[in-house]
Amino acid sequence: MDRKSRKREYDREWVTLKRLSKLQRKREQTENSELLITAKCETADTNTLEIIENQEMHDINMDNDENETLNLETEHISEDSDVLMDDEFSDDDSLMMSDSNSNIASDIASWSIENGIAHNATDSLLKLLKKHGTKDLPSCSRTLLETPKTVNIQHKSGMEYFYFGVEKMLNNHIQKYPVETTEKMHTLELRLNIDGLPLFKSSKTCFWSVLCSTNLKPTNVFPVAITCGKSKPGDLEFLCDTVEGIRKLEKEGLWYHGRRIIVKISGIICDAPAKAFIKSIKHFSGYYGCDRCIQKGQWLGRMTFQQVDNLVLRTDKSFRQKQQEEHHNGEQETPLCQLNMDMVSGFPIDYMHQACLGVMKKLVLTWIRGPKETRMSAGHTMIVSNKLENLRNSIPSVFARRPRGLNEIDRWKATEYRQLMLYTGKVVLKGILKQELYDNFMCFSTAMCILVQPSLTRKHWQYARDLLRFFVLQCRELYGESFLVYNVHQMLHIADVAKQFEGLDECSAFPFENFNQKLKRMVHSGRSPLAQVTRRILEGQKMQKGTMEEHIKCTRPNNLFGVDQTFFEVIEEDGLEKQTLQCRVYDKTAPLYTEPCDSRIVGSYVGKARDTTIRRVLKSDLKSQAIMIDHMDNNNILFLYILHTDHGHCLTL
After folding, report:
1. What string of DSSP letters covers 305-322?
2. Of 46, 163, 363, 537, which is most buried with the most CB atoms under 10 A?
3. 30 and 116 in one domain?
């Protein structure tokens, strides 16, 4: 018998016994009163009889008061537990009490976990609710959230260490998805991320976590192991439990609802320093630091890679046999070699670090702070900043951040550089940046637009590879040989990665970095941060999440959608059918630019504000969201498809 059933049985018995006890007490009092009246009537005079009668009336009133009290108590019990006071109890009504209180407790627990509410704040809320009538809630947040009393913190690689378990976390992860998603699943692809996370500005304390996600949509990230210390791990021992867990799954598969699911690892996603550390290879600033080809770097005040053509690529066999010894760190071998994966292509180039925070950031800093030949004037910099800020009201809410001026470039995040690279750069830089620099940037931007979108990658990845090769060659002419650093060199290899994973968003660190920030918010003090985070994660495992429904909005800038070369601005929802939308339709569009290619390939269009019609459209037809920018020249409107694929609603821990 579960806890709810025991609670219902207890409530039923308690109410029955109390009712019987009250009735028995009433009968005894009535009998005693009758005996007293009879005995005293025989011997008492009139005055005495009046006194006895008054006593009788007093006893009857007391009985009535007790009856009213009994009724009030019964009503109160019935309100709390929904148990009827009749001889026959209703099972359906008795279920309502436990379910209602259970739902309240579950909702409070979910609210506390989702919003990162501290335990002392949750304790205060529970006390207030109990004070105002919700008696069956626990008084302590640790009881509500089922917080484990102890966590088994170990020590590995010179760090505090906790291992959650690959198979356990994977089963919990799959349960968060609808049955329709998992019932036809036969193969599960894992993607790992290993990186450091500083916790405090006033301390060197940091996490090094092993995070995992699968090929299920929407993306959900969960931790496998976390270490905590004053620096990065002293060795790679902290990876051994994870490697052993994945090897077991590769061999035996994952059993889920009586079905065996094949598990394989498709990639380990890291930035360059973390990749060098976990692979036991030379740092990216070393002479043989490229993990994709065997060329030797050239020192020009910094490590550069000048060779562009005829690159000799590394292979899994050459890596495992250490054919180029200069690329490896001595005899030390990474435990990742035990996995059934390609040790070269299995470590994809992360475009978040290499392209957004790497190449795009380097270009912007060169334009505003570089040599005179490539630097914009202060006036032009101000114009670009003003243009970016004027676009704030045109950027939909699917973007985590809206544009900021170049005066805040030192605080820009990776998503802001991506926004400039894929969308706004082609608008705000035109006519400001020198023409040869702008053309060079457009080669880079167009190639990345192709490679982040899965369908475009399948069709045009070779063209994107050629554009990036031309971009790197031109960078050497425009910015000098010292410009060809590791991140720029990686643009020669990134098209092959996009082809392998069918889009760069399928192997990017964006979702992992988002989860790292959630981990950081779980730390409320500097005392035992690993224990704090471990408890919060174990609490969250019991919370079942579902996908969030996306609602089409009718206000700018979130109401523009595109279908092929036609764009629909949603005006209002049909109040009768609820399945159609009234839209302002822009169907007379033209390419925004023609160099280096027709911009319609990458979803960039221009149209006229006056060339519109009003039409009703099915909701199901509007799937691709777009950006609409009112252009001042010739009353034009710019339309840009949103190409990156990580902007949808995602599951949370």
Report:
1. ----SS--B--HHHHHTT
2. 363
3. no
Q: Measured in whole angstroms, how far is the alpha carbon of residue 450 from the centre of its chain?
A: 25
594, 596, 599, 604: CA torsion to nearest 10: -110
Express as a percent the part of the chain with pLDDT over 70.
Answer: 82
Closest among 482, 491, 481, 463 to 354, alpha carbons compared: 491
Amino acid identity for residue 587 in this structure: D
Burial label for 211, CB within 10 Å (0-12, 13-18, 19+), is buried
Residues 6 or more apart whose CB falls under 8 angstroms from that of 597 comprise: 446, 463
Top-confidence range, 491-500, 521-530, 566-575: 491-500
The residue that leads in pLDDT, 47 or 263, is: 263
> Which of 89, 109, 136 marks a domain boundary?
89
632 vs 401, more confident: 401
Contact predicate 590/607, CB 8 Å: yes
In this structure, is residue 286 part of a structural domain?
no
Could you report the per-residue pLDDT of 540-568, keeping only the tens digit for each?
876 655 444 567 888 889 999 999 999 99
> 169 and 255 in one domain?
yes
Cβ burial, residue 218 (10 Å; 0-12/13-18/19+): middle
pLDDT tens column, 436-447: 999 999 999 999
Give the domain extent around 68.
3-89
SS3 246: helix
| Domain membership flag for residue 32 | yes
Distance CA 346, CA 89 (A): 64
Which residues have a Cβ under 8 Å from the Cβ of 425 and sit 6 or more positions away? 441, 445
Nearest to 456 by CA among 517, 502, 401: 502
Q: Give residue 541's identity as a one-letter amino acid code.
A: Q
CB 177 within 8 A of CB 545: no
Q: Sort 309 into a burial class: Cβ within 10 Å, 0-12 / 13-18 / 19+.
A: exposed
Beta bridge partners of 281: 328
The answer on 77 and 126 residing in a single domain is: no
Asked if 327 and 492 touch (Cβ cutoff 8 Å), the reply is: no
Helix, coil or strand: residue 439: helix
Q: By three-state DSSP, how is residue 165 classified?
A: coil
Q: How many domains does the chain have?
A: 4
User: How many degrees, rounded to 5, is the angle at CA 402 between CA 401 and CA 408?
Assistant: 90
Query: Considering the entire predicted model, what is its pTM?
Result: 0.81
Number of H helices, E strands in the chain: 21, 17
Whether the upstream peptide bond of residue 557 has omega within 30° of 0, thus cis, is yes
In-domain check, residue 104: yes
Same-domain status, 162 and 243: yes
Last residue of a domain, one of 44, 63, 89: 89
Q: Please tell me whether residues 83 and 131 are part of one structural domain.
A: no
Q: Tell me the residue type at 609.
A: A
Under DSSP, is residue 229 helix (H, G, I), strand (E, B) or coil?
A: strand
**H/E run at residue 629:** strand 624-630
Answer yes or no: do 39 and 18 share one domain. yes
Question: 457 with 507: CB under 8 angstroms?
Answer: no
- Domain check: are 59 and 117 in the same one? no
The SS3 of residue 198 is strand
- Say if 392 falls within a structural domain: no
Residues 109 and 49 placed together within one structural domain of the fold:
no
